[in-house]
Amino acid sequence: MELFMYVFIFILGLIFGSFFNVCIYRIPLNEDIFISRSKCFSCGKSLGALDMVPVLSYIFLGGKCRYCKSKISLRYPLIELLTAVLFCITYYRTGLNINLVVHLLLVSLLIIIAFIDLDHLIIPHSLTITGMFIALGWQLYSSSLSWTSITLGFIIGFGVPGIIALFGGMGGGDVMLGGMFGLFLGFKYTLTLLMISFIIGGIYSIFMLATKKKKGKEMVAFGPFLVIAGLIVLWYGAEILTWYGVSL
Q1: What pLDDT, in 10s, does the model give residues 54-94?
Q2: CA-closest candidate to residue 84, choices 180, 19, 2
Q3: Is CB count within 10 Å lower at the N or C end of the chain?
């Protein structure tokens, strides 16, 4: 039964990952994500069902469009696989319960947010506001955190990036994403998330500067660092706080 669930969650992740590819491409262009059929970016030909089987279509078509033979980016199947893996980890950490549904929704938003930020250096407010509503609905339903913790989590999640944004170090999307995390995670976990994201971002920046792949004032998407830190805290936040001797 357990193996079946992992296989099911993995396949579900592949399917949703394919949809997330559509979201990542279309949302920044303000295009609809549900009605219009997927097309080849090179020839404009509408894709059939056999052209969009997650991962397998890419393999069987040799990474090329069936119609014009132009190359398809390897990133598409990689995002599908990444989504499947993250879904499985989420299931491993939560088990089969209502938490799984909410956490999968959060993970889904984070995947889309991270790649849009990487591509365009923006985080659409439509995504973070959606996440905030999901977070508030979840908190009203579960009562797993005190409203004091939720409020403080939002203040620090929104406020710290907001102060940094005033000096040009972050964008408005990062501020909204921090606030969204605050509503989901509460004060202690959000504070931990911010610390981890700054550490990851600092290590990345030092590496890029040391290897001369980045100039000093070149813009870097910070959203992915927040997303990575958010996933770490979502899955292992309790263990991290316990290790540091912080009461839950």
Answers
A1: 898 888 888 888 888 889 899 999 999 999 999 999 999 99
A2: 19
A3: N
